[in-house]
# Entry
Amino acid sequence: MTKLSQPIGFLVVIFVLLSCHLTNAQLNKSEAQALIGRVIPQKAQFFVVESLDSTAPKDLFEIESKNQKIILKGNNGVAVASALYYYLTEYCHCQITWNGVNLDLPVKLPQVPTKITQKTPYQYRYYLNYCTFNYSMSWWNWERWQKEIDWMAMHGINMPLAITGEEYTWREVYNEMGFSDNDLKDFFSGPAYFSWFWMGNLDGWGGPLPVSWMKSHKDLQVKIVQRERALGMKPVLPAFTGHVPAAFKKKYPNAKLKATNWTNGFGDTYILDSEDPLFAELGKKFINKQTKLFGSDHLYSADTFNENEPPTDEPAYLSKLSARIYEGMRQADPDAVWVMQGWLFYSDRKFWKAPQIEALLSAVPNDKMLLLDLATEIEPVWKRTDAFYGKPWIWNMLNNFGGNVNLFGRMDGVASGPALALNDPNSKNLQGIGLTMEAIEQNPVIYELMMQHTWQTTPVDLNEWLVKYAKNRYKTDDKSLVEAWQVLRQTVYNGKDIRDGAESIITGRPTFDSTTVWTRTKLNYKPKDLLPAWDLFVEASKKGIDSDGFQYDLVDITRQVLANHALVLQKKWKNSFKAKDTAQFKKDSQAFIDLIADMDELLATRKDFMLGPWISSARSWGNTPAEKALYEQNARDLITLWGDANNPLHEYSNRQWSGLLNDFYKPRWQQFFVELNKALVANREPNLKTFDANIRTWEWNWVKTQKNFPTTTKGNSHQVALKMYKKYRNEL
# Structure
């Protein structure tokens, strides 16, 4: 099918129609003032919130000083919050990130000499990925969500994915259709696996899900969407894509069901054929129930084939399928706009060629669909799809997979990519930018950089921006730290060679290999090239620089250097083993174990890098010992085995966390070294097959264990980092 060029007038009509679905809400002054009170309670009385024209097509804000007060004007709460953050960063040299906060405000707030006006070129600023809700957010309570929503508003986010509580909606729908909770017990997954349950990849794993969880998270979702809307955001809620419980075939024996399998160690799931009349009926029931519970802004997320191939690549089939899915939404909500993650076009490029993509998209009116180019900084799918064949679309940065802990990002690409696309006539109906990482709470610099685009149309000048970033983060003009960031820019953040950040071999299941399936150790720089940044941070530490962000970065850079060094130590013990030098092997393998213990000690100085809070927050949702045990098992499983003892995704979500290093990774390697040492003493080959079987059993037992881990930090970040520097720097 040849794409005909669209008349300019037609595109304007589409833009106007689509804009109606994200009309700027009236400014809620009390909510905006409350946000200021939460962020800077000690200075909130010096800020005045005023409204700007709410009919403006895109968000804008103004900042000025009057009568010793700072006047923040915006057309909605997000604009006002963005004005606040602009003032804090530009005039007070402050910063708010997940990993380091500097709100050391001057005693007297700086006045704004001339009025500041900022307008965004982007209608939409999207936030979140299905996976974020589990790799990072599985155990969040309202207090943590409130912080995140404030962060979102200050960074210009106006279109967040909001899927908390979806399981409650489905339970209500199915109960009303005659399904008992017993019918559904093998359907709903455990809390750490909702992302993949919602996307139709698995059923039941990590369950059975307590009804108490469903009720508590329905209440949590009500708070989330209420706050988001009060600040002027338009939450994207889920829609039906065909995934139904196995019990469906018993209640509706004539229903057209297709068994499908994600091929990652889980059982089949069942998809209701979109041709079946029940499909539209169920889709309508779900949206109606959801709207009653949580309201609606007419934006619905639906992904039909997340890492599952359709039964045929025939364009006509795909077109009809797409039309029916949209029709299911439209019947429930005539104003529905389908928001589609474009991950399938990236992850399964072999199937999704131009004819298939165009067929899937063209069946839905342009003003009723919005495409998320989910990993544009890695591969801009828009460039090979004629900018999604006329559909409005959003430029997104993915950056992190699985919540792995590493220093990584495409700094130069992120600094320029959105603006270059915005100004490229071939990008056609580009309407927004967004963050679609699988997990947050790492590499804060990349996310601060990405959201800098919200209020500008040109590429970010990194040489200037890094100076400001360092000053805001570290409360100092020390040029050596800017120099360190230029080293980081050319090494860990150079965006070359690899898709996502490298892990450390210590997080892999014990092996002689230098990499494993999900512990990939290939770096995008030479390890020695990172050392000057470490040197500069250690010297800055000795000067007394001590902001929260500095402490985090000092620990993170030290962690990365040690994580890289593990590969060198692995090579040493591997060589001594092959040489059958028992004494040297014991020495080299002990050095490897000591490195893991040293990393654990280092990471224990920062909550950002601790297992304890993850486990503790999981258990906090339980009302009974059995519920607490279930949630702890979910929390342990996701970041280690992912599934059962033989799951192929083990280590996909590995974390370099204090507690996990000493309690999981270190004992695994110790058991491996015991087997290797026995082999050396007996002059035989190590029995790796037996070891592999035994270690899988040990890992599964670890997942099922209950144990408290520290939730408060231990040690001083500066002192421990310096200790590691003195121990390892000469060796490196």
In short: The two ends are 59 Å apart (CA to CA). The longest helix spans residues 548-578. Residues 615 and 635 are 6 Å apart (CA to CA).
